[in-house]
Amino acid sequence: MRIAVIGCEYAGTTTLGNAIYDWSVDTLGRTLMLHDHWKMPHISGHPPHETNLTLLTEEEKGQVQQASPAVAELLMRYALYYHTPSSLTEDPAVVVGYHIEDLIYGPRYYGYGGDGEPGDRRVVAAHIEKRLAANVPQSALVLLEASPEVIRERMKANPHSPGVVPEKDIEMVSQRFREEYERSLIPGKFILDTTSATVEETMADFIEQVQPYLTPQDRMGLLARSANIGV
Amino acid sequence: MRLIICGIEYSGTTTLATGISAWAGSTIGGEFPVHDHWKFPDIECYRSGPSPSLSDTDRQTMLGLSPKLKEMLQRQSLVMHFGDAGEFTDQILAGFYLDDTVYGPLYFDYGGQYEPQGGPRARYARYVEAQFLKRAPETVFVYLKASANVIKKRMDDEQRPYGVLKPDDIDAVLEAFETQAEASLFTRKIELDTSDSTPAETLDQLVAQLQPFFTDTDRMRMLAHKALAVGGNQ
Q: Which of A112, A209, B7, B67 is deepest in the core (most CB within 10 A)?
């Protein structure tokens, strides 16, 4: 299972990513990698499932935030390729944000990757998806959506530090994610609306819709876990 | 054709990579881009579109990044250059992973014994080699060296604004590259000493020693290039 979870900030992508991680461990018996490090300056480490050795210090976050668009572009693009398998793999992973988030946020908020610029994110995204098709054909793309009003409420109730999307851009960014979701060549896709759903309800919906994209290893894990062998 | 050309700074890796790229273009046909961006702060790589160099301000930013960020950038850049498995690619990598292996711990404070990401770089180097052997077993490893005196003289003759090597470290760095070259998992290896050779002579030596390592595909391409050139098609 390799899932890319995308959506406007505050749509619930990180929450769903963590829930998928827990479900994978508990139900499939598989520890997957959860990569949720695509918003500047949070570009390293895998909280909450890893020791803090690889998390950036406040000073390091400052270095990332102060980096010019040229340096920030490199930091992000190298990470994108690094996290895209270049040979066949069935290692499970959930990638939150990923190339589509960078394609939307890079040109708009970080000053890099526009059309025809060095590291053009349209070109990078196409290459990433070509690699995914070749090496992880069972990939699925999940778009999380929520109404702009709910996004605003969440933004006020639990503001990210630093946040990426300003309040005035919520409608536009939500629309951009919908456009890129539809444009994406990843064949497995589905949309979850978190506007009025609890995390448990969203997760139940996810489990139902992810079934076609479970790998044979996922299914064997599911079977082994449900059989309670030895109990 | 895939070549990895490694050696101490000023041993001639860039010169040889550029030379063999031109030779391959005129003999095999096609383009043989050189990836020679493994010494901080010049680590930028653009695979498509415009390929600008970093500004001096960007270079200072790069040098000011923490060891953790430098390590991350270099490791991710190394992996980015593994290439897609099964995909035909010509590659000339100059410096590449051994620049990272040797200079990372010595000058940039990452990749030492307790490196949390990927372990010590001396061990990570073997991982990189194993990946190439699995994905591109035709890869040829070219190790360049020169005497300490020659390296020092070249350094004095051509100061580089963002050079990595420090004069006092020449002997230690030479030894580190030698150790890594000896430990390398690559079996298709060429070793060249550039102390007393001109760049043209070194290129000739490389071409001669590459002969047994050209793949059937390389040879077919050479034949095709020659035939088409005679026919006036190129």
A: B7
Mean pLDDT of the B121-141 span:
95
* Strand order across the beta sheet in which B140-145 lies: B34-35, B91-94, B2-7, B140-145, B189-193
Residue whose structure tokens are 């050696």: B7
Cα A130 from Cα A135, distance rounded (Å): 9
Mean pLDDT (chain B, rounded): 94
Token readout for B155 is 């350094």
Residues 6+ apart with CB under 8 A from B231: none
CATH number for the domain spanning A152: value is: 3.40.50.300
Q: Are B60 and B24 in contact (CB under 8 A)?
A: no
| Cβ neighbours for A89, distance < 8 A, ≥ 6 positions apart | A135, A136
Chain A partners within 8 Å of B134 (Cβ): 87
Chain A hits for B49, Cβ within 8 Å: 116-120, 123
- What is the per-residue pLDDT for B229? 82
Burial class (CB in 10 A: 0-12, 13-18, 19+), A221: buried
Q: What's the rounded Cα separation, in Å, for the pair B164 and B147? A: 18
Domain count of the fold of chain A: 1
Angle made by CA atoms A215, A221, A223, in degrees to the nearest 5: 105
Q: Which residues of B touch A134 (CB under 8 A)?
A: 84
CB contacts under 8 A, B 146-175 vs A, are none
pTM: 0.93
d(CA B133, CA A170): 48
Q: How far is B79 from chain A (nearest CA, A)?
A: 6
Radius of gyration of chain B (CA): 18
Instruction: Name the residue range of residue A143's domain.
Output: 2-47+56-227
Q: Which residues of A93-126 are buried (b: 16+ CB within 10 A; e: fewer)?
A: bbbbbbbbbbbbbbbbebebbeeebbbbbbbbbb
Which residues, given as ranges, of chain A have pLDDT below 70? 51, 228-231
Q: What are phi and psi of B35, to 5 degrees?
A: -100, 110
Backbone angles phi, psi at B197, to 5 degrees: -110, 145
- What residue type is assigned to position B165 of the chain? L
Domains present along chain B, CATH in parentheses: 2-49+59-230 (3.40.50.300)
In angstroms, rounded to a whole number, what is the distance separating the alpha carbons of residues A78 and A124? 11
Give residues with Cβ within 8 angstroms of B30, minimum separation 6: B24, B90, B221
Q: Are A81 and B75 a contacting pair at CB < 8 A?
A: no
* Matching residue, tokens 């919906």: A205
